[in-house]
Amino acid sequence: MDRWIPRSAEGDVKSALRRAPAVLLLGARQVGKSTLARRLVAEDPAAAVYLDLERMPDRQRLQDADTYLRAMGSKLLVIDEVHRAPELFDTLRGVIDERRFRGDRYGHFLLLGSASIELLRQTESLAGRISSVEMTPVLLNEASGAGLALPQLWLRGGFPDSLTARDTGDSLLWRGDFIRAYLERDVPMFAPRLPAETIGRLWTMLAHVQGAPLNKERLATSLEVSASALNRYLDLFVDLLLVRRLRPWSGNVGKRLVRAPKIYIRDSGLVHALLDVVEYDDLLGHPVVGPSWEGFVIEHLIAAAGWRCIPYYYRTHSGAEIDLLFERGGRVEAAIEIKRSAAASVSRGFHAGCAVLQPRARYLVHGADGADGADGADAAEDTWPAPGGVTVIGLRALAERLAGQA
Fold first, then answer.
1. Which pTM was predicted?
2. Mean pLDDT (the chain, rounded)
3. Is 85 left (phi over 0), alpha (psi -120 to 50) or beta?
4. Where are the beta strands (DSSP E) in 235-290?
């Protein structure tokens, strides 16, 4: 099914182009970056040029990049797969400075890339000239706006071609092809010395331990690699925007805190594909159902909270635990417990953690907006107070609340 889902990143990119000469749009492969960029170009084809560095003709245009880019005058230059030409960034700086000198201050370049750390390192030469936007897989508000239900989004994940596939079987096949393409193409491109087969095994292992604190020794032993090699593999997944390392909160509170990060595969559909979970009923009966829902919620809430809120989890060796907390300006803004059941209650460990951290707001995210199989049409508004200053709330409603505070 060829179906465009309106993306909030489109507005973010347009806003960034109005205030910065260059914008870097980051996102995993197949998340919709190229489609979004082509839509922007199509709005005014005479004022924009789209270059895809995976195409030989476009790479040839940039053999003398300085001459070509200056010849484009005041057009918006969209350069896809920009990580393929790291030498380009020094040229971009000169072109930007010349256009700014002429009074053309904003909206010169839109750069698209799939690997965050290396690209951000390359853009250091554009300091003060570039703004970054991350494009996530499809979020709940975007899916809802396109008439797609939460259970479908959770099961299939947010990559548009997987989400809108004809049926669950086609969606699973798409995700299987996606995983193989990363291992056969992207791993050799971004990390040519790392063994793709071992990285594929690690990816599956991470799906089995979704949301658990990182146990480097156990994973390294299972893979028969060193701890330093394991770190390189995990760094690659994080850099490719496929895995999130959720850091533990580590303030000085006089408690013995767990120091290992929690590891999440960022897209729930990839978790399910790696574990061969095909249908929604299969997911509800699978051991990964709780960790999968937790990771799904965390990704949505981090996206909603925005860059000013720093996400952590909190756990002590004595049992106090908070699934997700946001810190802003040195203050814990929100503490969040995540449960799939609509009838869930807050744990003692959550109350114990809140007693120490004193967050401004305390939430229990429940599953009434579709995670438990219920019809979620109105459940996002299903919010009520609970003892201990906790607000029980659905994912959609909390995401909207956090976005309003960003």
1. 0.93
2. 92
3. beta
4. 243-246, 262-265
